[in-house]
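Field reference: sequence -> structure
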Amino acid sequence: QVQLVESGGRLVQAGGSLNISCEASGRTFRNYYWGWFRQAPGKEREVVAIINWTGEYTYYIDSVKGRFTISRDSAKNTVYLQLNKLNPEDTATYYCNFRRKVTPTMHVWGQGVQVTVTS
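Structure field:
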């Protein structure tokens, strides 16, 4: 029912910044969470940041605290991730996620965007 389309991934130099976005099409609901995950080659997918539908709750993995910022625009059904002070370890495919834990439950993934950080 919900389809996610990501954009904004590109190659950047170390220390640079990037903003990626994920827009949901179709019907959306209350009581959901947006999440950004990433997966580097040969490694398992890990959570990067989470924000709830009202924006009142956020979570960041320790390695990105102070560098990345997750935000959302409910009117546009869009979640953003601002990536600052990038380093090569941030290189990965970034996926957005839409999740509801209450009925009707949902768990939807975006197609992924590539973020590559050069030394």
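Note: The mean pLDDT is 95.
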